[in-house]
Design a protein that fits this description.
Radius of gyration: 23 Å
Shape: globular
Distance between the termini: 8 Å
Number of strands: 22
CATH topology of the largest domain: FAD/NAD(P)-binding domain
Strand order of the largest sheet: 8-7-17-18-19-15-21
Bound molecules: flavin-adenine dinucleotide
Structural class: alpha+beta
Strand content: 15-25%
CATH superfamily of the largest domain: FAD/NAD(P)-binding domain
CATH architecture of the largest domain: 3-Layer(bba) Sandwich
Number of helices: 15
Length: 476
């Protein structure tokens, strides 16, 4: 029998990780390795991972770091032989805009949730009401029944009150996901919070790391790569081509057809070609996946309910003489609906001090920083052209930072619909869809399902590769 044929739709990091796993991962290809074809709609692979040259340096346009304490991304980098390219984050800590000024966030937060009463009582960025709510959680915690799932907001509001929920916790969790705590599933987005709520008692105490967590304090929290996280797909594409993986860019998959009477059970169409396949990995956003296979099964159609938020990143270079940042830390967080001297509420949700995080970006002349705009319920950024958006964000930075005037250069990168929103019941919806997809020779990969982030997406792609291999009987 000829080699099995697997088609991977999408060319983001989850798709490329799937191709790496299908071609033997760290061990490399063998006689059992299938023919693998990756089809990516845009002109380059990488999806939300990309770099560009800005102000003479290579900067990331999407993800600019990945969690070091999750194994998936670090393992893949090592398998690719790129250990020497890992760059540890050089700074820690962050600031919160609150009650009209910047406050340094206390230590010991778990995804924005305080874990000791002392840390929050010393924090001047919340009022006596917030302090009182924290005291109540420590001394007489509210009872809460969370059932099969709950929103993050339901849990934090019941346990820690509205002020801590919206002014303290949401800027951090909502910032990472570009979503609202009242819409995001605790079980899928913040499983530790869900487990803590199920356990009952004080939320802060339940989230406190135990001595047995035994986290080695010298392990960095985040890594980047010497040429940016966006160089990871470039390295992967090079290595996959060496393994004879066919990589096609600039061609969208338009249909996935079942052909039970043909020699292959599936056919993957682009506008110009048809590739026969024994199995297909769909590593596309859930809405695209639904458009390709939703008609097969109601449980696959339900994937269309996983919608996504958009965001824009505005990167600036500014002469050191023209800017004053807070003395330490990697950036600042801004609660939604914060009023300022300009029109409407602030659009900026977070600011990242790029050259403090990543030493390779440092220069004596200027400072590089990046402002994030956009949430699931705030798409004002999409109504402004690049110049107007950069001007607006610059004005907001002048309001937020101790000193800011006349940035030298700016760069706007838009990410429409790039950040999936996991609603209550997400895990069950995905479980049902995965069980249904198996009947059609399809595996699901990507950040619509198993977690948003580079490590989770890599893990999702590798899992889909193992699933499809098992499904088609060892790809022989
Ligand atoms: C602005 C931003 C900042 C982020 N920052 C971080 C960070 O600092 N750290 C971190 O860990 N994570 C971060 N993330 C999240 C992380 O980048 C993503 O979770 C991850 O890259 C998603 O990979 P993916 O392969 O699942 O999806 P994607 O990267 O979205 O790839 C999907 C691909 O499918 C392609 N496609 C769509 N339709 C078709 C079709 N019909 N045919 C063929 N191809 C198609 C798309 O063009 C795209 O390339 C960030 C994300 C964004 C948007």
């Amino acid at each position: 029998m000829s080699r099995a044929s697997i088609v991977i739709v999408g060319g983001g990091v989850s798709a490329l990780a799937a191709a790496w796993e299908l071609t033997g991962g760290a061990d490399g290809p063998s006689e059992l390795t299938p023919r693998v074809e990756v089809i990516e709609a845009s002109v380059r692979c990488g999806g939300s991972l990309a770099t560009t040259t800005f102000s003479g340096r290579t900067v990331d346009l999407g993800a600019d770091g990945f969690l070091a304490r999750r194994p998936e991304a670090v393992s893949l980098v090592r398998e690719l032989g790129l250990d020497d390219q890992l760059e540890a984050i050089a700074e820690s800590g962050a600031w919160l805009w609150s009650r009209g000024q910047l406050h340094e966030l206390p230590k010991g937060l778990v995804l924005g949730v305080p874990t000791t009463l002392e840390s929050i009582l010393h924090f001047r960025g919340v009022s006596w009401r917030g302090h009182l709510a924290a005291k109540r959680d420590a001394l007489a915690p509210a009872r809460l029944h969370v059932g099969d799932d709950a929103t993050i907001g339901e849990i934090t509001r019941a346990k820690l009150g509205r002020e801590l929920s919206y002014q303290f916790i949401e800027p951090m969790i909502g910032g990472i996901q570009a979503g609202r705590i009242d819409e995001l599933s605790a079980k899928s987005v913040f499983p530790a919070l869900y487990a803590a709520a199920q356990k009952g008692g004080s939320l802060m105490r339940a989230l406190r790391p135990t001595n047995s967590s035994n986290v080695n304090d010298t392990t960095p929290v985040f890594y980047s790569l010497a040429d940016g996280v966006g160089s990871l797909p470039t390295h992967l594409v090079t290595r996959l081509k060496e393994r004879d993986v066919v990589i096609r860019t600039g061609v969208a998959v338009t249909a996935l057809r079942r052909t039970p009477a043909g020699s292959y059970p599936l056919e993957v169409d682009t506008f110009a070609t048809t590739t026969p396949a024994n199995g297909v990995i769909l590593a596309t956003p859930a809405t695209v996946t639904t458009s390709l296979i939703g008609s097969y099964d109601p449980d696959l159609d339900a994937l269309g309910r996983i919608d996504s938020a958009g965001a824009a990143m505005v990167t600036f270079s500014i002469l050191r003489a023209n800017v004053t940042l807070p003395p330490r830390g990697t950036g600042i967080l801004i609660p939604l609906g914060t009023q300022w001297s300009g029109e409407g509420s602030l659009m900026v949700t977070a600011v990242t001090f790029l050259d403090r995080k990543w030493p390779r970006l440092r220069s004596d002349e200027d400072v590089l920083l990046r402002a994030h705009v956009g949430r699931s319920d705030d798409a004002r950024w999409s109504e402004l052209d690049d110049d107007a958006l950069a001007r607006r964000v610059s004005d907001e930075l002048a309001f937020l930072l101790p000193k800011w005037s006349a940035p030298t250069d700016s760069l706007v990168q838009r990410w429409p619909l790039a950040l999936p929103q996991y609603r209550v019941g997400h895990d069950q919806l995905v479980d049902r869809a995965r069980r249904a997809s198996v009947h059609y020779g399809v595996a699901l990969a990507g950040n619509s399902y198993d977690g948003v982030g580079v490590p989770a997406s890599i893990g999702s792609g590798r899992r889909a590769a193992r699933d499809i291999t098992a499904l088609i009987g060892g790809a022989g």
